[in-house]
From TrEMBL:
The keyword DNA-binding does not apply. Keywords: ATP-binding, Nucleotide-binding. SUPFAM superfamilies: Adenine nucleotide alpha hydrolases-like. Residues 10-135, 147-286 form the UspA domain. Pfam families: Usp. One of its GO terms (molecular function) is ATP binding. InterPro entries: Rossmann-like_a/b/a_fold (IPR014729), Universal_stress_UspA (IPR006015), UspA (IPR006016). Belongs to the universal stress protein A family. This is Nucleotide-binding universal stress protein, UspA family.
Amino acid sequence: MSTARIRRGIVAGIDGSDGALEAAAWAASAARRFEEPLRLVHVLPKHPNSGSGDGHPEGDEFLDAAERIVLNGQHDLEVERSTHPGPPAHALVELSKTARMLVLGPAATSEMKSVVAGSDVVRVSNRAECPVVVWRGIQGHEVSETRPVVVGVDGSELSDMAVAHAFEFAAFFGAPLVAVHTWAEHSTLGAWYSEERRFTDWSDLVQHEEAWLAESLAGWREKYPDVEVTRCLERGGPMKVLLEYSFGAQLIAVGSHGRNPFTASIVGSTSQSLIHHARCPVLICRKG
């Protein structure tokens, strides 16, 4: 008998902010494409043991506003709503255990402040057991069939998960997919790099990387033959390159190793940088 966990619904976190409402509108557009219910969730800021009285009128107001926005006078979407005890990051991670996807508003802190004081958006993105989309409200709320889904490819297990979800999103959205692999002299495989090669022709390495990227995507292209795929090999760090690609994308997908915020700041977490600076929603994939 299968013990696989059944995942259902797209969960949108609602905290009363404009960013959360915009994220919910995007989540509704995605839920329609995936034919999944949209679950609007408000998490009480207080710890459940602190006591907050009977009823949560403010939370109900937040959920009412979100429901009006996501339905927009239509009745083509199943909407569920609920209130949960905090802390917010803990409650959302618990919900991620059964959700198909979490959608959160933008990080309310700067990247540096997230490192020092922490951020619920970063905490959830680093610990969730399902994909997390962090809203970056530049390109509009609606899923688009023209703007591409962009995915960072580096060969790691988490990158493979991001590729899988990116193909799935592109297929459901009817959108093209752009697979981006980056390389730099100091970060490429050691067999290719030495001080003597710094000023030599890198064409052999580029051909090797191009062949590797094509091979990495071959199985997914067979599974999703209708998805138009563009392979892009870029010289430079993944953080800078993917930020540039986010300007024309409708969604950018990356893996997250779940590092704590302080360690991430030291090693340069690409996913954390995208959460704070990308120009489109960011899909964070982890092994759940």
